[in-house]
Amino acid sequence: MTRSTLILLGLIVLGGCTTLQNGTEVNTDIVYVERSSGDLTGSLFLPAGEGPHPAVLVIHGGGWRKGEPWHMGHVSRLLANEGFVAFTPSYRFTPEHQHPAQLDDVRDAYRWLAARDDVDADDVAIWGYSAGAHLALLLGLAPEEAGGLAAEERPVAIIGGGSPTSFELFDPESRLVVQLVGGSLDERPEAWEAASPISWVSSDDPPVYLYHGSLDQIVDVEHARQLASALQEAEVPVTLDTVMGGHISVAVFDRSVERRAAAWLEQHLSDSTGMFDMLPPTKDGP
Structure pTM? Predict the structure, then answer.
């Protein structure tokens, strides 16, 4: 484990602010919204140099019932090192809080991030893994009346890893989904559909990059394939990057696919800075 990683983990545990060797500033336990159940906080990664910068809301996974912002700290550091402001929020968990509580939380986190003076509001993207990817896709694809963002707020791009996209691909009595939406598929079919990002695909969606382990036994790769096909049919730019590995191994060990996703993201900024020009281009399409 590198020295900077140890410093980062120490900050997450203790809370606070520091500047790492490359000039990236890390701030933890920042309150972005107050709830009756308690304040919601997150970790903010600031790049070196003056803004405004492009920004990414980075959402952690954990089956909608657990997880911490530091679980996506490596992605946030990658982005901050390349000139992005990255914010990884906490959000309310099941079973105490059901959908759309989690969506409400990440929407507030997105708006908090986009409103910062050091952020270019025209260049805000969303990145998530696992349950975080579900929330990223739902936030970016669903219309405002379904809990998503207003048309003028929508992200410039969405990145999802190990993404649950269609709840009907899960067991109809999946405990995690039941805890999220409040019932089985037979009991609450409309809720299962409404909470599935694939239900909200439309031609005006932002570009999407999906990466997924071909051996994923927790969220089958068919989730990514079906969403990629639906986006392609709607003529939305989409990249499907299928990699060798399972759900956990891709998240923990595959830094190369995250670099490709970040390079793809740079290509979709409104004012491209060429931060990743040394990396090979990605190919759109399932």
Answer: 0.90
